[in-house]
Design brief:
The complex is a heterodimer of chains A (816) and B (114). Chain A is of the alpha+beta class. Helix content of chain A is 39%, strand content 24%. In chain A, a hairpin with a 5-residue loop joins strand 27 and strand 28. Chain A is globular and about 95 Å long.
């Protein structure tokens, strides 16, 4: 029997699930629970994982570690313990994965080699890569990653065979809120869009409840606890523990009592507060409201109406709360029937995905038997989908090693005896191609029967194949675009967000500096991840370096460099740069790390952003701009949350990284706000580009260009209506392309280009060479030598780079 | 810089040529075509790595097959491919005069246009 395993490696809890082609089950841990707390404790001779380790969290925090998932992909290590050991988040995660693998061995008698591990939708490459590495450290040979919302949707929709539907995956985790819009159509599941809020999660619910408790203590007991005072930290921790328990109890009870007991200076305080579910619901109403707003924004961004959403899949601990279920069902859509336990949904989806990609594992005894059997059998290489929505999938195969046999025909027989193929004759290369008939919504096993020319049966390996009929899923999408930073501070996207993984793209860029061999010079090609147009707002995830000392000959500025970026489903980034003129390939990525955050630098940056927000607020109040005031209020709230993380940043790398990431987002939003006149500017730019393009297309364009321009006109109207800046930017780029295409048929094209570029030769990286080219160009122009003039203009283009910006704003990029 | 895509927008129909299907194909047909070609590539069946375009035979790999499937299963992206789709014979007549002197297709630029 083939088994497929999926793991949800969560911040607070982790789980492993197994799919055997028919049954999907969550594997319990040694305590019989489906969820294992993501907590690791080290003793002198052993490692303890899960609930047992949790008991030591406050008693022995030096040897007990939790919430390390947020530090994946960083170099941050734990403080040295009493044995002198330190651990990275990767190593700690690998202990969790090892424990889950052991549970699989115990309950399924199978030590899985291949596993699918889920990652948050917005994990960046270094974090994804570290997750895959943790899997390998845990003993898995192959690890594939799957975004959590995709896993949830797959688990919730697995048994559903309805046609086209749109769903929402509503994932309210501990620290963040993610929502994904997914669509199932013809048995294929696809993630259409994603949105979220990094400032919204279960922790915010706890924070609100703690604030409520602090007010109660102050008003009723005259105890004033100050969160900024270090001697009050342990009391606060106690309050957080108690409100979390109360929150969970209120999912099943109408009211509960929060019992507090702590030392307060020279006194001992023992006090109970009654909290009802209704009171809890009114306290957290703003949080639920914000989450629903994000969902509605996503639905509207995708051009859908709320009524078109057929159901909502709830994921995460807070999804247990009745208030969430009720509000979501009332405001969005009914809760999915196949939802089951929201805490293990992700792991179950991962196991199903493992089946769709054929990530199979064989129980130990069967694997040994198969190996023995294949020694005396004709070996076949068979290709078939492990899972498919089609009832008549194709099976292809070829003879790999016939041994002493002479196979001529092949037949597949379904193990229920109700259906079989005809006997198919192998072609001259030993290849066969057969369509098989599946029974709906079940695991279909087919026996492989090989015969020689006399009809005698030959033992075949594999003896059988299994195909499960069910929902399949498109390749998981890349969560954030990957590109390179350019010398002018812009980002060039190579692989766009949403591109199915694995993906590979190659583009031609040009160097901006001359590299002289045998010197210490180097040219950086920073690889960045993010959606912002400016490279400095994107995360640097790697760096390709062309070092001068590795070169045999000079590399002049303006030299073409062919850059290839490749990303696989395990979060591995491969990048290479081909120096075209030298035919030299450079393929090392120097770093794949999330840079650590310096609290002092963060504080300075925070102060600057805060004063900019305040300035904008003053101006907005002065002109009574209600929309601006509301938008700035949101930014100020986000800054307030970042401020809280900054207080903790000195002793808590997790808080520092969160502050860094969120501050970058706020800064980018603020910059967009400060340049809010951008749309007006873009519109006038768009108008100019349109008029120029219209002139060229009318005079020199072909039918295709005319059609494309008409299409742009329609899209422009819509973008204008919806005030979509990015769409207008895209249209400008597209119209520019149409303009260039038509303009090139203009007989004066190269002459015009020559005149334009000649006027900028003072900007050339090599002025003497540019002067020579201009002189040559003039003579070609005089002699009407068009081909030579074109070549001359192209060389001049390469010598005149775009305006460059300061190094820190472009990640020190040396390309354009 | 003008991409080959913008100069020859008929290439928007490339996913259909790569998977050897036409716009009548639904998601199941796309998946079936994709599976068949991927399996054939993996089994190294002769000539699977080539496909016909108006400019003659081109080479495909698993990346390209996967991209083609992704484009055609995304309704927004598929619209563009359908809009420019023309039967191969018609394409050959329409495209040849303009394309005869073009450089080889830069597929990465074509993909980028989506």
């Amino acid at each position: 029997m083939e088994l497929f395993f999926g793991i949800d490696l969560g911040t607070s809890n982790s789980a492993i699930a197994c799919f055997d082609g028919t049954q999907l089950s969550v594997i319990p841990n040694s305590r019989g629970e489906g969820n294992t707390p993501s907590i690791v404790r080290f003793t002198e001779h052993s490692v303890i994982v899960g609930a047992k380790a949790q008991n030591f969290l406050f008693k022995d925090s030096l040897h007990t570690h939790k919430e390390f998932k947020r530090l994946m992909g960083t170099q941050v290590k734990t403080n040295p313990d009493s044995f002198g050991n330190t651990y990275t988040a990767e190593q700690l995660s690998s202990e969790i994965l090892k424990a889950l693998r052991q549970d699989a061995v115990k309950f399924k008698e199978c030590a899985p080699d291949n596993v699918v591990v889920t990652v948050p939708a917005l994990f960046e490459l270094p974090q994804s890569n570290a997750t895959a590495e943790a899997g390998r450290l845990a003993g898995f040979k192959k690890v594939e990653l799957l975004p959590e919302p995709v896993a949830s949707a797959l688990a919730a929709g697995w048994s559903d065979q309805d046609n086209t539907q749109a769903w929402l995956v509503f994932d309210l985790g501990g620290g963040t809120f993610d929502v994904s819009l997914v669509e199932s159509r013809d048995g294929l599941l696809r993630v259409v869009g994603h949105d979220g809020d990094n400032f919204l999660g279960g922790r915010d619910i706890d924070r609100i409840l703690v604030e409520w408790l602090l007010n109660k203590l102050r008003d009723e007991k005259s105890i004033v606890i100050n969160p900024d005072q270090s001697e009050h930290i342990s009391i606060l921790r106690h309050l957080y523990q108690e409100v979390e328990k109360a929150k969970i109890r209120l999912s099943t009870q109408e009211r509960t009592s929060i019992e507090l007991d702590f030392d307060w200076y020279d006194d001992y305080v023992e006090v109970d507060f009654l909290l009802s579910r209704t009171e809890l619901e009114s306290l957290i109403a703003p949080i639920v409201e914000r989450a629903i707003e994000v969902c509605l924004r996503l639905i509207s961004q995708q051009g859908l109406q709320r009524e078109q959403i057929s159901r909502v899949v709830l994921v995460g601990g807070p999804a247990h709360m009745p208030v969430i279920k009720t509000r979501v069902a009332a405001e969005l859509a009914p809760i999915a029937e196949g939802n089951g336990d929201p805490m293990t949904l992700v792991a179950r989806g991962a196991a199903l995905y493992a089946a769709t990609i054929g990530f199979k594992n064989n129980p130990q005894i069967e694997a040994a038997e198969q190996a023995r059997a294949s020694k005396n059998a004709c070996e076949l290489w068979v290709q078939y989908p492990s899972v498919c929505a089609d009832l008549q999938p194709d099976v292809m195969g070829r003879v790999l090693d016939a041994k002493q046999f002479l196979p001529v025909r092949v037949q597949l027989i379904r193990d229920d005896g109700q259906w079989q193929t005809n006997e198919i004759t192998l072609d001259e290369n030993g290849v066969f191609f057969i369509s098989v008939q599946l029974q709906a919504a079940r695991n279909n096993r087919f026996l492989v029967k090989l015969c020689d020319k006399n009809g005698a049966v030959i033992p075949a390996s594999p003896e059988s194949i299994s195909i499960v009929h069910g929902l399949t899923i498109s390749d998981p999408p890349l969560s954030r675009s990957i590109g390179v930073a350019l010398a002018n501070g812009q980002r060039r996207s190579f692989i766009d967000r949403g591109t199915p993984l694995p993906a590979k793209r190659t583009f031609l860029q040009y160097s901006t500096e001359t590299l002289v061999p045998q010197t210490q010079q180097q040219l950086n090609i920073p690889i960045v991840q993010g959606e912002r147009a400016q490279a400095r707002f994107c995360r640097k995830v790697g760096n390709l370096v062309i070092a001068a000392h590795e070169l045999q000959q000079q590399l002049p500025a303006g030299s073409p460099i062919e850059i290839t970026i490749e990303v696989d489903r395990g979060g591995n980034l491969r990048a290479s740069a081909l120096i075209v003129d030298h035919n030299k390939l450079i393929s090392a990525v120097a770093e794949l790390l999330t840079p650590s955050a310096d609290p002092q630098v963060l504080q300075l940056n925070f102060n600057q952003v805060q004063s900019r927000v305040m300035q904008q607020q003053r101006e907005a109040f002065a002109r009574h701009d209600q929309n601006a005031i509301a938008a700035l209020d949101q930014l100020a709230k986000k800054l307030h949350a970042i401020g809280k993380d900054l207080v903790l940043a000195c002793n808590d790398q997790d808080a520092a990284l969160r502050a860094q990431r969120n501050l970058m987002e706020v800064e980018a939003d603020l910059e967009a706000f400060e340049t809010r006149d951008q749309l007006d500017e873009l519109l006038s730019e768009c108008e100019i580009v349109y008029l120029n393009t219209r002139y060229q297309v009318d005079n020199y364009g072909n039918e295709i260009e005319k059609k494309m321009l008409a299409d742009c006109e329609m899209r422009f109207k819509k973008a204008l209506e919806l005030k979509r800046v990015q769409e207008v930017e895209r249209l400008i780029e597209q119209m520019s392309n149409i303009f260039n295409s038509a303009y090139r048929r203009n007989p004066e094209f190269w002459a015009d280009q020559f005149h334009a570029i000649s006027s900028r030769i003072h900007e050339a990286t090599n002025i003497s060479r540019a002067n020579v080219l201009v002189a040559e160009g003039r003579s070609y122009l005089a002699n009407s030598n068009k081909a030579a003039l074109e070549s001359c203009v192209r060389q001049l283009w390469n010598l005149i780079p775009d305006a460059r910006v300061a190094g820190e704003q472009n990640h020190q990029s040396g390309i354009q | 810089m003008t991409t080959e895509f913008s100069a020859t927008p008929v290439f928007s129909a490339w996913p259909f040529w790569v998977l050897e299907i036409d716009p009548t194909a639904d998601n199941r047909a796309i998946e079936k075509a994709y599976q068949k070609l991927v399996n054939s590539l993996q089994l190294k069946i002769a000539n699977t790595e080539q496909f016909m375009t108006p400019l003659g035979l081109r080479v495909r790999d698993e990346f390209m097959l996967r991209e083609a499937r992704a484009v055609l299963t995304d309704p927004d992206k598929r619209v563009l491919a359908e809009f420019w789709y023309m039967p191969a014979e018609q394409l050959a007549v329409q495209a040849k005069p303009d394309l005869v002197n073009e450089q080889p297709i830069n597929w990465h630029s074509v993909l980028k246009a989506y």
